[in-house]
Amino acid sequence: MLDAVLRADGGRITAALAACFRDLDLAEEALAEACARAVSAWADAPPANPAGWLYRVATRVALDSLRRSAVRHAAALPEPEPEPTVEELMTAAPLIPDERLRLIFVCCHPAIHPEARAALTLRLVCGLSAQEIARAFLIAEPALLQRLTRAKRKIADAGVPFEVPGPDHWSERLDAVLSTLEVAYAHAHADSAGTGRHAGYAEEMLRITAALAAMLPTEPEVQALTATVRFAEARRPARVDADGMMVPLAQQDPSLWDTMLIAQGRRYLAGVLTRSLGARSLQALIHAEWCARRSLAEPAPWPAILTLYDALLACRDDPITRLNRAVALAETRGPAVALEEVDALSHAGLADYLPYHALRADLLARLGLADAARRAYDAALALAPADAERRWLLRARSKYVD
Known about the structure:
Blueprint: H1 2-21, H2 24-41, H3 50-69, H4 86-89, H5 99-107, H6 114-124, H7 130-136, H8 141-158, H9 171-189, H10 200-215, H11 220-234, H12 259-270, H13 279-291, H14 302-313, H15 319-333, H16 335-343, H17 354-366, H18 370-381, H19 387-398
């Protein structure tokens, strides 16, 4: 039960504590202590309001810590109300209707370095581990921890207020907000079967992106991301076969896709097409190309996908974009050309990135390089993929076992 409460409310509780005490480290430490106490306190009878219980106990832990340090300031540290709930503490802001989206806007403060905003928000609000965030941004975990530490210090030293910004301040936070939503959704989408620790973000991102699109109807990148989430979620029913194994996109049966979500995605994308296309708009178009496929009898749209990735490189040239482009490159120009592109990324921080090893293994296998393919599959499996992906990798690897 405690794990479920933390997944659903941990970010909100931490943010509420940070808003009260203006100290992220203290907020996280206090919540950790409250969780430790909950293990024994909830053993016989869990409270009616677990999130409120955790907040109340964490607040008292934080106050006790400050008293012991003799730095408590009475005006800044009010005594908590009896049995408060997180919903009561995080006052609703009518202009930002979704609670988690409000917290994301709060945490993407412009005073925090741009490289740290999304990382801090993913840690604080979405509950991703430092390792997960580091992998998402293709940096070493110690470097990520340094960024988080500097961001927390900046918040403490500058007295950054944890408050919901008004519309005049949305634009300066928007890119970090969108980056946060992209990474959070990627963690839900990475597990084909939807059974991972962050699987709940998939449904939540449908709601959050809809709220954001309603808030900012003229922002093309917002509309594009909202469309992308719908196109991707529409394909979920076909992403796993009857045995629980992952089905690659080109092999998915389009008749199983959710046509209602695809239609929604197209409506969000329609307004984007009349404007200059940014990175997220091009990504949405890539998803739209796939979702235009009606059956497996139709050829996969690899030439169009490659053209869109070429355009995407012009505005977002990063290792992940190049890796995804290599998939289309293999299907249009052959695995040898694609492998050359993939191997050029060997020093791009992809050592802990599962798709890099999986794609490289597939290309090596298609070129008949069995020993190298086997080693690449082993490298992918060593990264502990989700069960559906693990089954697919094991089946692919089994073709090359002596």
